[in-house]
Structures are given as C-alpha cells and as structure tokens.
From TrEMBL:
InterPro entries: EDR2-like, EDR2_C. This is Protein ENHANCED DISEASE RESISTANCE 2. Residues 28-240 form the Protein ENHANCED DISEASE RESISTANCE 2 C-terminal domain. Residues 292-310 have a biased composition (Basic and acidic residues). It comes from Phaseolus angularis. Residues 278-310 are annotated as: Disordered. Pfam families: EDR2_C (PF07059).
Length: 310
C-alpha cells in the first residue's frame, strides 16, 4: 500500500465524507486557516491578533458516531478504525503521530464528533508543542484552546455562541488525555459543564442547518511563544444525526447520571454568549469520573448494518 493510500482509507471509511469547504453538506472539510484570528508576534504589547495561516498538522479523518454510553479512549483501542489502519500499514516501521480531539456531545444518545490530525515531522525539542506533549494534565488544561466560528446557522444559535467563541478548554470543561507511543487523544466532555450542555443542547436541535468551524491550538502565554499557531481545524456542515455510525461498547455502564435533564434556569444564560459563559467561572457541576467513560470497540461478529467497524 502506497504511503498516501492509508490516509485515503481513513478519510473514506468515516461515516460522513470529506468535501470542499464551501459545499460540505452532511460532511466535513478543512477551512482556510485565515478565518481564525490568533495572537500575533507582539500580542502582549499591542493586543493585536493576526490571521492564523497554515496549520501545524494535516487532517487525517473525521468520525461522527454514537453509542449507548459515552465514547472515549478511542486510539487506545487497537480495534478502533484509525488505530487499526495505522497498525496494519506500519507494523514495524516508525508510525506517524496522530492527534485526536473527541467532542463528547450530551444527548439522549451519546454522540461524538472526532477530528484526527497527523504529522511525520519531528517535534522540536523544548517547543510549545513538545512541552504540551510532555507536560502534565494541569499544564495541558491551562493551554489547550478552542476557537469556534458559526459560519452558518439560525440567529438563536449565533447569539448563544457569539461571533467567534474562544476558550481554554480545560478551564471550562473536563478533558481526559489518552496518550500512547504515537498518539495523543483529548476527550472533551461537554456534559461536564451544565451551561455548556445547555448551549450545545440548543445547537444540536439545529445541527442539520449549522456550519461550524472548530480550531485547536496551544495558547501562547509568553512572548517567546508568539505568534500562536493552530494545530488543526475542521468544518462540519448540516450534519444529520441519523448519519452517525453506531458503535458497540466494550462494557455496559450505567450512564443515567450523565444524561440528566437540564434545569430551566440555565436557558436564561444562553443569550450571554458562549465565550462569556465559559470564561465566567469554574465548571458548574465538576468533572465527570473515569467510570463514566467507556472504551468502544467494533463488534466484528455483528452482521447488522447498524453497528459497524469504525
């Protein structure tokens, strides 16, 4: 198999297709880097942001999946579809390094939108990326940043999210970091914040009419770390919940405490804007415990079309 074919295989085997950024209905795409504004080379003196430009990582794939339990620790499972393709393609040779960002969406079904990125370039010693990979979870939580743009959507969602929502994820939401020799996965639990859950619950009702850009980067907090560079970004558009691929959990967990109903009072906070809400204080209901996570594996013995190898 030629080196590019394994990437094509990962891209093509996802539940929704890779399409062009300006026409990706019920699919995903890579938006241009310049749609995101990041801290410029003199940000701490001038507070001036600049268009982000090129990404540090290359897009590798996208998964839109659902399960009866929360989906996590995906790349730690040798039967997960991306891990399996890479292990098959590089059984002895040095494997490409993979980054995965798993956005766990609270709903009556447990949906996950997972973006995969890769690089074969070596990380420079003592660079910000190197510090992030070698750092502890406290360091990662203080640095991993999300930029969200609502490209297209109804007024109520645009009002809730804001024009460009920016937050350091680990300060607002529970993040679990799963690392291996050639990968790092970040499981981002939207359900760990009741207010974020309310906003995403609202947006999910319009998901088939939304176009959203999401970018991940490591925040620069010192002049020597400027300008900021985006790790990777993806766009999803008009996603159909019915197109999410069902996956089989490896163990049955009671997730009733995860899927709690949202108090009515939280909806009063929605119009204040996503960025303001996430920066306004600590998590409302704390981090979820590890017992609420489950590794997901494909059921190779199941011949139904609903549960597929992912």
């Amino acid at each position: 198999m030629a080196s590019v074919e394994w990437i094509d295989r990962i891209i093509s085997e996802g539940a929704v297709p890779l399409l062009e950024p300006d026409n990706c209905s019920n699919g995903w795409a890579t938006p241009p880097g310049d749609v995101f504004m990041v801290r410029g080379p003199e940000y701490f003196k001038t507070r001036v942001k600049i268009p982000a430009g090129d990404y540090l990582l290359k897009p590798l794939g996208f998964d839109w999946i659902k399960s009866s339990v929360k989906i996590g620790e995906i790349l730690d499972d040798p039967n997960s579809r991306v891990r399996k393709v890479i292990d098959d393609e590089f059984p002895a040779a040095e494997k490409p390094f993979v980054w995965a960002f798993n956005i766990q969406v609270p709903n009556k079904d447990n949906y996950s939108a997972i973006a995969y990125f890769t690089t074969k370039e070596r990380v420079l010693e003592d660079s910000l990326v190197d510090k992030f990979l070698k750092g502890d979870n406290a360091f990662r939580n203080s640095r991993l940043k999300l930029i969200a743009n609502i490209v297209k959507g109804p007024w109520i969602v645009r009002k809730a999210v804001g024009e460009q929502a920016i937050c350091v994820i680990g300060r607002a939401l529970s993040c679990k970091y799963c690392t291996g020799e050639n990968f790092i996965e970040v499981d981002i639990d939207i359900g760990s914040s009741m207010v974020a859950s309310a906003i995403v619950h609202l947006a999910f009702g319009y998901i088939s009419t939304l176009t959203v850009d999401l970018a991940f980067l490591i925040e620069s907090q010192d002049e020597s770390e400027l300008p900021e560079k985006i790790l990777g970004a993806f766009r999803f558009s008009d996603l159909d919940p019915a197109s999410a691929r069902s996956v089989e959990p490896s163990s049955a967990l009671n997730c009733d405490d995860v899927q709690t109903s949202l108090p009515t009072r939280l909806w009063k906070s929605i119009g204040q804007g996503f960025s303001h809400i996430l920066h306004s204080g600590p998590q409302e209901d704390g981090s979820s415990s590890d017992s609420q996570h489950a590794k997901i594996v494909a059921d190779h013995k199941d011949n139904t079309t609903e549960v597929k190898n992912w």
